[in-house]
C-alpha cells in the first residue's frame, strides 16, 4: 500500500478524518479542528497584521465575480458551480421519476448565481474595487474560507473542500513585494516553531491545457509564486502548505483597483492551507496530540 493511502487510512482509523465515500471530502474530528484553531491563533500571534481588515466570506461567491476573475480561462478543470432545481410541479414529477429509475437527473439543474469559492481571496478584489480608490498606504486584509477544487484524490492533503487562511496586500508594487517577502520569512519561522521541516521553492499554478504550460513556466521564471513545502505523505515529495503569490496588476486591471494616486494597484497574497498544516503536524508528531513534543504543545496550546 502506498504512503498516501496509508496515512489516509490511519487518519480514518484514528477518527481524525471521517470518510464520506467521496475522495477529498472528509469530516473532521474535534481534535483535528482544535489543531487548526490553535494554529490559526499562532498565526495571529506572529502576524504584525493586527491592522488588517478582517473579512469572512462564505464558501460560495457571486458568479459574476467568478466569471470576471478569469478563473475559467486558467483553471476550468478545478471549478465547481452551484446548480439548483428551478422547475414547475410537472418537472418535479419527472425529476423524481428520473431518480427512481437511476437515470441522470442532474442535467436539468440550472446554474444559480453562486459558484464555490476557489481561493479565499477571489471574492475580495471586486468587493474592494467597489469601495473606490484605496486609502493612503493601500489595503491589508485577513481572510479565511472553505475553498472548493475539483481534484479528487486519495492523497489526504489534496482535498476538494478545505480551508485557506489568507492575508492580502493591495497597493504599490513596492508595498506588495515587501509584504510578500516579509511573509516568506515569517511563514518559515511560524512553521518551524511547531517542529516542522520547511523548504521554500518557486512554483507555478496548474494552468489548463498546452498554452497553460507556457503560463506556468512564465510564472516560475518571474518568481510570481513561492511555496513552503513540508513533508506530509512523503519525505521526498513534499506538500505545499503555504503559498506566496504576486499577481502583479492582474487583479488590479481586472477589477479597476486604484491606489490613492489613481494608479492601478498591484496585489499579493499569502495562503495557509490549514488542513495541510494540521496533516503535516499529525504526520510528523503522531496521531495523538497528547504525545506531541513539549515545545510544539507549548507553541500551540500555551
Ligand atoms: P498544489 O500545487 O499542491 O495543488 P496549489 O498551488 O494549488 O497547491 P494554492 O492555489 O496556492 O495551492 O492554494 C493556497 C494553499 O491552499 C496551498 O498552499 C495549500 O496549502 C492549500 N491547498 C491548495 N489546494 C489544496 C487541496 N486540494 N487540499 C488542501 N489544501 C490545498
Ligand atoms: Zn490569494
Ligand atoms: Mg493545486
From TrEMBL:
Enzyme class: ligase
InterPro entries xref list: aa-tRNA-synth_II/BPL/LPL (IPR045864)
One GO MF term: ligase activity
Gene3D superfamilies attached to this UniProt entry: Bira Bifunctional Protein, Domain 2 (3.30.930.10)
EC number(s) reported in the record: 6.2.1.n2
Keywords: Ligase
Protein's name according to its UniProt entry: Amino acid--[acyl-carrier-protein] ligase
Taxonomic source organism: Stappia taiwanensis
Organism classification: Bacteria, Pseudomonadati, Pseudomonadota, Alphaproteobacteria, Hyphomicrobiales
Amino acid at each position: 500500500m502506498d504512503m498516501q493511502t496509508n496515512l489516509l487510512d490511519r487518519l480514518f482509523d484514528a477518527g481524525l478524518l471521517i470518510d464520506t465515500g467521496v475522495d477529498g471530502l472528509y469530516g473532521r474530528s474535534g481534535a483535528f479542528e482544535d489543531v487548526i484553531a490553535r494554529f490559526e491563533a499562532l498565526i495571529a500571534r506572529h502576524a504584525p497584521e493586527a491592522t488588517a481588515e478582517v473579512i469572512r466570506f462564505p464558501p460560495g461567491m457571486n458568479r459574476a465575480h467568478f466569471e470576471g476573475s478569469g478563473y475559467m480561462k486558467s483553471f476550468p478543470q478545478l471549478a465547481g458551480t452551484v446548480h439548483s432545481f428551478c422547475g414547475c410541479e410537472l418537472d418535479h414529477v419527472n425529476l423524481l421519476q428520473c431518480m427512481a429509475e437511476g437515470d441522470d437527473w442532474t442535467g436539468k439543474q440550472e446554474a444559480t448565481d453562486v459558484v464555490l469559492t476557489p481561493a479565499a481571496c477571489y471574492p475580495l478584489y471586486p468587493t474592494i474595487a467597489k469601495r473606490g480608490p484605496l486609502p493612503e498606504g493601500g489595503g491589508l486584509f485577513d481572510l479565511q474560507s472553505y475553498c472548493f477544487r475539483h481534484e479528487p484524490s486519495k492523497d489526504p492533503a489534496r482535498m476538494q473542500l478545505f480551508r485557506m487562511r489568507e492575508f492580502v496586500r493591495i497597493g504599490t508594487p513596492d508595498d506588495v513585494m515587501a509584504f510578500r517577502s516579509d511573509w516568506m520569512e515569517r511563514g518559515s519561522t511560524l512553521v518551524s516553531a511547531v517542529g516542522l521541516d520547511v523548504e521554500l521553492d518557486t512554483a507555478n499554478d496548474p494552468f489548463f491545457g498546452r498554452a497553460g504550460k507556457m503560463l506556468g513556466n512564465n510564472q516560475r521564471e518571474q518568481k510570481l509564486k513561492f511555496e513552503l513545502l513540508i513533508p506530509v505523505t512523503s519525505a521526498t515529495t513534499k506538500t505545499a502548505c503555504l503559498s506566496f503569490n504576486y499577481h502583479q496588476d492582474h487583479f488590479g486591471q481586472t477589477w479597476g483597483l486604484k491606489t490613492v494616486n489613481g494608479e492601478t494597484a498591484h496585489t499579493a497574497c499569502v495562503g495557509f492551507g490549514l488542513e495541510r498544516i494540521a496533516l503535516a503536524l499529525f504526520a510528523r508528531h503522531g496521531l495523538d496530540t497528547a504525545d506531541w513534543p513539549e515545545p510544539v504543545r507549548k507553541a500551540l496550546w500555551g
